[in-house]
Specification:
The chain is an all-alpha fold. It has six helices and no strands.
C-alpha cells in the first residue's frame, strides 16, 4: 500500500509545504499594504451611516481595494510560478525539474528552451489576465 494516493511524488508533496509557508506572509503583507492605502473618507461615511465593522470591511474596504487585491494575487502567482520552477532544481518536480533533468543534464538544449518558453508564456498569460481584471474592476479607470 502506498502512502501517496494522488499523483504527487514525495519530493513534490514536500515542496508544497515551504511554498505555502512562504506564500501566506508574502500575500498577507501585500493585502495589508492594499488596505492601508485606502482613503479614510468612505470608511468615515460608512460609520456615519451606522455600518457595522463587518459591513465596513465587506462592503467598503474590500470593494475599494478589489483592484489592488487582484494585482497582489497576480504578483503572488507570478512569484510562485518562478519559485516552483526553482523547486524543480532540488527535485521538487514540475516544469523546472523537467527542464533540468531532460534539458540541462542530458545536454538537450531544445528541450530546455521549450520548457523555459512555456514558463515565460505561463507567466505572461497570468500577468495579462491579472492586468485585464484590474482594469475591469477599477472604477477609477472607467
Amino acid at each position: 500500500m502506498t502512502l501517496y494516493t494522488n499523483n504527487l511524488t514525495p519530493s513534490t508533496a514536500a515542496a508544497i509545504v515551504p511554498l505555502t509557508v512562504n506564500a501566506i506572509p508574502y500575500f498577507a503583507r501585500l493585502v495589508e499594504q492594499n488596505i492601508n492605502q485606502l482613503g479614510s473618507g468612505p470608511i468615515e461615511a460608512a460609520r456615519a451611516m451606522g455600518a457595522t465593522r463587518g459591513q465596513i470591511i465587506r462592503q467598503v474596504m474590500l470593494v475599494d481595494a478589489r483592484p489592488a487585491l487582484i494585482g497582489s494575487i497576480t504578483i503572488t502567482t507570478v512569484s510562485f510560478i518562478s519559485y516552483s520552477a526553482m523547486v524543480g532544481l532540488v527535485g521538487g518536480g514540475g516544469i523546472g525539474d523537467f527542464a533540468i533533468r531532460y534539458g540541462y543534464y542530458r545536454y538537450e538544449t531544445e528541450v530546455m528552451l521549450v520548457a523555459i518558453v512555456l514558463m515565460l508564456l505561463l507567466v505572461s498569460a497570468v500577468q495579462m489576465l491579472g492586468n485585464r481584471l484590474v482594469r475591469i474592476t477599477d472604477k477609477r479607470l472607467a
